[in-house]
């Protein structure tokens, strides 16, 4: 295992899309061109699948230094109303391209800290968002909450609007680790936020944990999981810390010397994983564990799991509209990302213009590779069809044979099947199929975090 860790601990994407964002076309799509693609996919799929909406709410009262998200740090809550006005202006532009009411299958509030916004403002925003839309019979609404500021009123208001899943960022419960990453949240706050959600009726509570943080040890990981075992959340996302100080300057408040080395980091993962499995969780894919009663596990068992810019999801729609600063939209054959700063984003949409500044239109080759990578990431115990006459086969067969010899996968006729050992190296297996990544192999610039 140590040799495999040394070999595969290399920078690779997390594969929430293919091509991944750094390899998109350099030229931004014309807004009319982007809206034409959105309309086409909407017309094809709205009545059968519905659509997904991701809303980025970037504000946080303090900076968590480990965080790689697009955030705006402020204690001024007057920013809420103006930002909501901009979100609704952007949504109005999309609504104007739809001939009929959009049917919303999935709605997710991410950030930032969505619960930075008051319950009253969230209530107003969601009601306005849904005013000219219908809700799919099998809808899924979820949001990310901070245990320190997610009040019972937040939970009740969002529950009344249809939300049934909440995700709390926990990371690690050790005080030294929390102080270093500027994310201090007592376990009592986590416990109360979880109890409140369940008392109100939320059917899925998710905890985000991170391994590889500064000053984290096998003891802090074990203590954290022992503590949360009392609450037994329905899902746990157990992420690898991505140390990218050249992108996120906040991470310069500590050094690599404060981080566990490669072998120690992998040990943290294995300790956490074994404890979670002992508690009854199942490894459903890249970084995600679920109880067998949760929809994520059920989707995995039925090979219905999907992966997009929101991570793993049980809904698979051809159109995902991203609203807000830095949000990314997916219209099956094309991607588009909004401007990242709040000011630029608001400046565009409040003038009745889209805020898109980057995008990519997928070629036939892109679409083929995208499906392969999705299959590897989402198939679980299933088999991934890799035809020998596929455009990639001559380039990857040696790597596939090597991974089979290492016990990471099995070849069966025109299929591969990821083994239980291989699931720990899922990002690396996906990377085998990534043509764009291979083409950039000679670049000296590190774009992605390491896989372990």
* CATH H-level homologous superfamily name of the largest domain: tm_1862 like domain
How many domains, as an integer? 2
The helix-and-strand class reads alpha/beta
The proportion of strand residues reads 15-25%
Distance between the termini: 12 Å
Low-confidence stretches: none
Largest sheet: 9 strands, mixed
Let me know the average pLDDT.
91
Number of helices: 15
CATH architecture annotation name of the largest domain: Alpha-Beta Horseshoe
User: Multimeric state of these chains?
Assistant: single chain
User: What value does the Rg take, in angstroms?
Assistant: 21 Å
Strand neighbour order, sheet with most strands: 9-10-8-7-6-5-4-1-13
- Find the CATH topology of the largest domain: pyruvate-formate lyase- activating enzyme
Helical fraction equals 25-40%
Per DSSP E runs of 2 or more residues, the count of β-strands stands at: 19
CATH class of the largest domain, named Alpha Beta
Shape category: globular
Descriptive account of the structure:
- With 452 residues, this protein is of the alpha/beta class.
- The protein folds into 2 domains: 20-361, tm_1862 like domain (pyruvate-formate lyase- activating enzyme, Alpha-Beta Horseshoe), CATH 3.80.30.20; 364-439, Arc Repressor Mutant, subunit A (Orthogonal Bundle), CATH 1.10.10.920.
- It contains 15 helices and 19 strands.
- It has helices at 2-8, 31-45, 79-97, 119-130, 152-160, 175-181, 187-200, 218-228, 262-278, 295-301, 342-349, 364-378, 393-405, 426-432, 435-439; strands at 51-57, 59-60, 72-73, 103-111, 134-145, 165-171, 204-211, 235-240, 282-285, 288-290, 306-308, 311-313, 320-323, 328-330, 334-338, 356-361, 384-385, 409-412, 415-418.
- A 9-stranded mixed beta sheet has the order 9-10-8-7-6-5-4-1-13, sandwiched between helices. The protein has a 3-stranded antiparallel beta sheet with strand order 14-15-16, with helices on one face.
- A hairpin with a 2-residue loop joins strand 11 (306-308) and strand 12 (311-313).
- It is globular, with a radius of gyration of 21 Å.
- The model has no long low-confidence stretch (mean pLDDT 91).
């Amino acid at each position: 295992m140590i040799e495999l860790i040394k070999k595969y601990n290399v920078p690779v994407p997390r594969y929430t899309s293919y091509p991944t964002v750094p390899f998109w076309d350099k030229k931004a799509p014309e807004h009319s061109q982007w809206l034409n693609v959105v309309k086409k996919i909407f017309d094809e799929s709205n009545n059968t699948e519905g659509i997904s909406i991701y809303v980025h709410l970037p504000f946080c009262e303090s900076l968590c230094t480990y965080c790689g998200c697009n955030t705006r740090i402020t204690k001024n809550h007057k920013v809420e109303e103006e930002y909501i006005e901009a979100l609704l202006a952007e949504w109005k532009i999309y609504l104007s391209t739809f001939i009929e009411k959009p049917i919303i299958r999935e709605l997710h509030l991410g950030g930032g800290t969505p619960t930075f916004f008051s319950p009253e403002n969230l209530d107003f925003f969601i009601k306005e968002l849904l005013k000219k839309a219908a809700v799919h019979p099998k809808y899924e609404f979820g949001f990310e909450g901070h245990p320190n500021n997610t009040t019972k009123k937040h939970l009740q208001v969002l529950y009344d609007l249809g939300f049934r899943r909440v995700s709390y960022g926990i990371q690690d419960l050790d005080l030294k680790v929390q102080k270093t990453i500027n994310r201090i949240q007592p376990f009592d706050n986590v416990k109360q936020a979880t109890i409140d959600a369940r008392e109100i009726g939320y059917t899925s509570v998710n905890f985000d944990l991170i391994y590889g943080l500064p000053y984290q040890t096998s003891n802090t990981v074990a203590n954290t999981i022992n503590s949360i075992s009392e609450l037994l959340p329905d899902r746990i996302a157990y992420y690898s810390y991505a140390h990218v100080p050249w992108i996120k300057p906040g991470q310069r408040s500590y050094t690599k010397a404060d981080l566990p080395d490669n072998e120690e980091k992998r040990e943290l993962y294995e300790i956490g994983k074994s404890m979670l499995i002992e508690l009854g969780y199942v490894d459903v894919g890249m970084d995600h564990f679920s109880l067998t009663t949760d929809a994520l596990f059920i989707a995995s068992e039925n090979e219905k799991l999907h992966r997009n810019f929101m991570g793993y999801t049980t809904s698979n729609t051809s159109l995902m509209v991203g609203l807000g600063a830095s949000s990314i939209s997916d219209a099956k054959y094309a991607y588009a990302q909004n401007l990242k700063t709040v000011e630029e984003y608001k400046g565009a949409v409040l003038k009745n213009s889209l805020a898109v500044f980057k995008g990519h239109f997928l070629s036939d080759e892109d679409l083929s590779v995208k499906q392969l990578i999705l299959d590897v990431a989402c198939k679980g115990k299933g088999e991934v069809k890799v035809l020998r006459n596929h455009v990639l086969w001559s380039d990857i067969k040696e790597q596939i044979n090597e991974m089979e010899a290492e016990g990471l996968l099995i070849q069966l006729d025109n299929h591969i099947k990821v083994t239980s050992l291989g699931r720990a190296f899922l990002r690396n297996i996906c990377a085998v199929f990534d043509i764009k990544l291979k083409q950039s192999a000679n670049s000296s610039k590190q774009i992605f975090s390491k896989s372990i």
